[in-house]
Amino acid sequence: MDASYVMVDGLGVGDVGEIVLRDRRVLAKEGMVVIIITLDRHNGRILKNPDIISRGFIYLKENQTLLEDIRKRIRGIMGRIPGHRDVDADYLKTLLRDQIGQLLYNKTKRRPMVLPVIIEV
Predict the structure, then answer these.
(1) Could you tell me the pTM of the whole model?
(2) 82: closest CA among 43, 47, 118?
(3) Tens-place pLDDT, residues 38-60
(4) Which of 27, 57, 80, 121 could form a disulfide with 31 if both were Cys (CB 3.0 to 4.6 A apart)?
């Protein structure tokens, strides 16, 4: 008799995609960092200091240096984008994910899932 794993995902049972499984492995092993950036809809400027939330990665309240390094890198990224009010949000999220992910790896040798959230007001 052949047997295989049966995956349960929320309300569904059966085929859980490989991407979902990969994301769960990364979250379990490396944690995640959420970056919330609030931009002015009219000129694309950052309205307030980016909010950074970490789960399963490091306790940011005890690592203020890394927190400030992340914020500094975000400001640098935003400053290099000319006329960022016209920049595609998906492009900006990808850029932030890649750059912040590399910074975190260089500082900690870990690769948490980086989730940028852009809010335009």
Answers:
(1) 0.80
(2) 43
(3) 988 887 788 999 999 999 998 88
(4) 57
